Amino acid sequence: MDDMQLNITVAKKNQNKPVNKKFVQKNNTEYKFKSKPDFSGKIIARKRPQNTGQKKLPQQIEEEPQNKIRKIHTNTNSDSKSDDLAGRLRDLSENKGKFHGKDYQLLSDDIKLKQKLKSGPWISSLFKNNPEVPKIGQKAVRPVVEKVFAGKTFSDLNIHPHSVANLKQNLNLTELMTVQQKAIPIILEGRDVLIRSQTGSGKTLAYALPVIEGLQAIRPKINRHDGIKAIVVVPTRELAVQTYELFVKLVKPFVWIVPGLLSGGQKRKAEKARLRKGLSILVGTPGRINDHLRHTHSLNFAKTGCLILDEADRLLDMGYEKDVSAIVKAIEDHKKAATYDPMALVKQTIVKKVSDNEEVEEQNETENVVETSVEHPLTKVFLSKERQTILLSATLTKAVENLAGITMQDPVFIDTSDGKAVVADSLKPKPVQEEPNQNLPEDVNNVKETSEHNTKDQARRNDQSCDSSRTGLKPFSGTNHPELFGENKNETEKITNKPNVKKTSNDDSDSDSDYEYFKVQKSLEKKPDETKTEEKSEVTEQEETSNVFVDALKTAIVEDELVLPATVNQTFLIVPMKLRLVTLCSLIVEHCVLNKKGGKMIVFMATLEMVDYLSELIETVLTGKDNKKTDSKKKGSQNGGKNDEESDSSDFEINYSEPGLVPLDLDVFSLHGSMPHETRMEVFKQFRTAKHGVLICTDVAARGLDVPRVDLVLQFCAPASATDYVHRVGRTGRAAQVGAATMFLLPSEAEFVRHLEQKRIRLRQSDESKALEALRTVAPSEHSMQRAAIAVQAKLEHVAHSSKEWLARASRAFTSWVRFYSGYPREVRMWLDARQLHLGHAAKAFALRDTPAALARRAKADPRVKVKPNNRLTVHDEEEKKRPGFEKLKMGAFGNKILNKQTSMHTASEYDSGLPPVDTYSYKKKKKQ
Ligand SMILES: Nc1ncnc2c1ncn2[C@@H]1O[C@H](COP(=O)(O)OP(=O)(O)OP(=O)(O)O)[C@@H](O)[C@H]1O
After folding, report:
1. 411: preceding bond cis by omega (within 30 degrees)
2. pLDDT for 229 beyond 90
3. Mean pLDDT confidence for 109-129
4. 734 lines ligand 1 (CB under 6 A)
5. Does 3.30.365.10 match the CATH number of domain 149-339+376-424?
6. SS3 assignment for 661-723
7. Cα separation of 688 and 710, whole Å?
8. Which residues lie in Basic and acidic residues bias regions (predicted)?
9. Which atom of ligand 1 approaches the CA of 706 most closely?
10. Residue nearest ligand 1's atom 31 by CA
């Protein structure tokens, strides 16, 4: 109905203007209603009960709808017309098929209520018709605990004294963390290692330190021309930057070791130049490394002795197994190729001699270093044709087991959780079997978690008989991905007994727009038949693989016990849908503004559209920021100023008088995978250094990010899995610091807590009755918490309806959330069930006043919602064509292709190389010239 009413308003306003194409005015009183209105506005307001004991709302709120109604009345100016409207509304409401089943009744009620809007005072319906908040209690769950610090110091390790001093001076670190104490000695032995340790437990240093230790001990000293010795693959650009920065700090005493960064979003040319100059340690995202593998000839892994996959489960989870496998394959291929190139050896010697001469002075200076440097087996690995693989994550999934299967050789599994803390060695047979391996020296069977391991591993590595046939875990040989490398699949299957490596269709690659949505969709795609096959292969695998490593790993996965830092106070808050947005505002104010110490919090949302829209909406409302500039800037960039219909918001005039809110001093940051690279890095840096503020983000910030002083993590949308819950919460309480984590749940989602409890995660229910209290600071003139909430909601809605651009963004956010919600994986769908959603209430949580039907209509009309997102930018032209924004590739004046950078970055994900596709034709042409 509002659509129609508003269209009438528009028509009257535009009487002297050219008539809207879709709108036909027959005569002064008769109007034809178009099937797809340009916009729709709806007054979410309920009639105040006739007999109210309550005080009247402040004039401004009461007047809002009246203003609108008055306006509509003046414009329609005819009773017969409103009768006509009523009749048309009836027609509309009879079209039940458009509405979702039981929601129909609610919708028709809504229409009826709107008809009554024509008279009487109205109030916001924020506190009406909300479901009751259940008290679900708490089960007695004993969480798994991990001891964070080991009680030993870095000087207890067998590492270079300069490293120990550097850690103290530059990083202020002296005491070892448990994972570091267990992992560093084993990594220094050159063994393949899989590490599971809770979030914030210092895993990065646990692998970075021994890698540097191994490299610094190489004599003659390595230089940047000696090739890439170690590769660190991480899932996000931010994590890549963070890891690279740590390496830069760690190599300070060893200036001849050069770390380098390859993450998405930067210029390919600059990175190529950096690669040409030479690097010792390469840190990067899988997409970007792969891109350079294809297009940069100077990138060579022939000398790579160590491959590290941080957040290994996520690397695989996102369907980047192909990228990771391609990197592994490249290392093997380059190594093989180097063996057959005698010239390479000569060249290398020459370069070395030259650089050795150059470094004579430096060597003299560091004579002491030479004397005191300790040689480790890892150093030998760096000098040999071997490769060490290290996988790390705070959570283990089946995918990690598979990844271990394809990339590791005789691995050691390190789990630091109390009670089942293990250092399980694949070379150590099961005690029950009592069959020590005859092929190995005796001591190999008694590997302990001390640094007493010796070069036996080297011997073991050279001993061909001691690999996969015994452990059941196959080293990667490219045979695991015949489709990638064009090998015969059947033959491959005969050769390898590698189990169910998750096959993800990379051709269709992951979504960008809301990759989380596609992540959950992916798990839905798994057919029952596939599951059966998986189970079968699991059984076969179990029969074939029986060693300590495999058993320990399997136990860790099967038990699925998730570990969270004990210092994090975990709670959940059951909030009815309509109150979610104001409650979020309230918590932000409470934590970041009212907290005298200055709080820093992270809010996780489901989709990037939500992040984009809600972060700006909240900032605008709470800080009183003038968003006009941003609006027009965005309009300009997103529409290219072409879509006049959308950009002309002058006919969208609903004059609500604004409730008086006090602007607050609040810093709002937003982060998601499709932001332009520079903005993204800037936001990340700013939030890291900020003393207080809120970061609203997608799961792109859930992995590995180490932001100091984050004392609250808020999950505005329930995570898609318990694993995601762990990583999100893990952004606080790092390195044994105190932190808090809370999660919003709808009354219908309350039992989701039980799912988490099954994984030994303990949460306490928060009292929702005080959750809105902080809003009284924002609306001090209101005499109750509820009134303040109504005032804030009114303002939020006012801003959301202040222009067509805002409204379009709101609708996109809403639609993306609905899509996300209906795609929750099967494991959690019984608690996070889309059928339980009240979409009308949900719209309110996005400050929208439309009916779900009107929202659906708007989404249908929005081309940006229609396009299936695709986050791959590189490699195949076919993939490129599927990408939204491809049509933005325009032909330039000289027939050259012009890529719309804005669009390109909008679809870039943190998993991408972030580069435009290489135009092979013009590239070849250039080369010829
Ligand atoms: N020995 C130590 N003593 C004190 N603090 C440390 C030590 N080692 C690392 N840290 C600090 O602990 C924090 C977390 O480290 P890191 O980021 O490596 O954790 P993580 O285990 O990789 O976490 P996640 O699983 O979330 O990626 C960092 O701020 C780091 O500086």
Report:
1. no
2. yes
3. 53
4. yes
5. no
6. CCCCCCCEEEECCCCCHHHHHHHHHHHHHCCCEEEEECHHHCCCCCCCCCCEEEECCCCCCHH
7. 9
8. 445-464, 484-496, 516-539
9. 17
10. 202
Tens digits of residue pLDDT in 719-743: 999 999 999 999 999 999 999 999 9
Residue for token pair 């178009």: 34
Are domains 149-339+376-424 and 568-626+659-865 of this chain identical in fold? Answer: yes
Place of tokens 């032909």: 891
Contact of 308 with 231, CB cutoff 8 Å: yes
The band of 130, judged by pLDDT with boundaries at 50, 70 and 90, is confident
Q: Which band of pLDDT confidence, cut at 50, 70 and 90, is reported for residue 770?
A: confident
> For 568-626+659-865, which CATH superfamily applies?
P-loop containing nucleotide triphosphate hydrolases (3.40.50.300)
In order of 234, 472, 560, 565, 736, the CA distances from 198 in angstroms are 17, 27, 13, 7, 11
Q: What is the pLDDT of residues 903-929, one digit of tens each?
A: 332 233 334 444 444 455 555 666 666
Q: Where are the beta strands (DSSP E) in 543-686?
A: 568-574, 600-604, 668-671
Determine whether 861 is exposed, middle or buried from the number of CB atoms within 10 Å of its CB (0-12, 13-18, 19+): middle
CA-nearest of 817, 706, 580 to 199 is 706
Question: 200 phi and psi, to 5 degrees?
Answer: 70, 20
Asked if residue 771 has pLDDT above 50, the reply is yes
Return the best residue to mutate from 167, 173, 249, 315 for the ligand 1 pocket (most ligand atoms within 8 A of CB): 173
- Angle of the 804-822 helix axis to the 852-861 helix axis, nearest 10: 100
Strand 568-574 versus strand 668-671 pairing type? unpaired
Please state, in angstroms and rounded to a whole number, the distance separating the CA atoms of residues 171 and 218: 24
- Our answer on whether the CB atom of 200 is closer than 6 Å to any ligand 1 atom is yes
Q: Measure the CA dihedral 700/703/707/713, to 10°.
A: 80
Residue type (1 letter), 56: K
491 or 824, greater pLDDT: 824
> Could you tell me which of 724, 738, 729 has the C-alpha nearest to residue 763?
729
Question: Which atom from ligand 1 is nearest to the alpha carbon of 176?
Answer: 1
| Structure tokens, 83 | 């009768």
3-state secondary structure of 599: coil
Answer positive or negative: Cα dihedral of 876, 882, 888, 891.
positive
Beta bridge partners of 473: none
* The Cα angle at residue 281 between residues 277 and 287, in degrees rounded to 5: 90
Burial class (CB in 10 A: 0-12, 13-18, 19+), 777: middle
How far from the centroid of its chain's Cα atoms is residue 818's Cα? Answer: 18
Cα gap 499→553, rounded to integer Å: 15
Return the closest-CA partner of residue 700 out of 734, 733, 675, 722: 675
* Interface confidence (ipTM) of the complex: 0.99
CB atoms near residue 90 (< 10 Å): 11
C-alpha torsion sign, points 843, 605, 723, 694: negative
Length of the chain: 929
- 195 within ligand 1 shell (Cβ under 6 A): no
Where helices occur in 437-545 by DSSP H, the ranges are: 456-462, 468-471, 482-485, 489-495, 515-525, 528-544
pLDDT of residue 121: 34
Determine whether the shortest distance from the Cβ of 329 to ligand 1 is under 6 A: no
Amino acid at 671: L
Per-domain residue ranges of the chain: 149-339+376-424, 568-626+659-865
Q: Is 394 in the pocket of ligand 1 (CB under 6 A)?
A: yes
Residue 344, ligand 1, Cβ within 6 A: no
Nearest CA to ligand 1 atom 5: 735
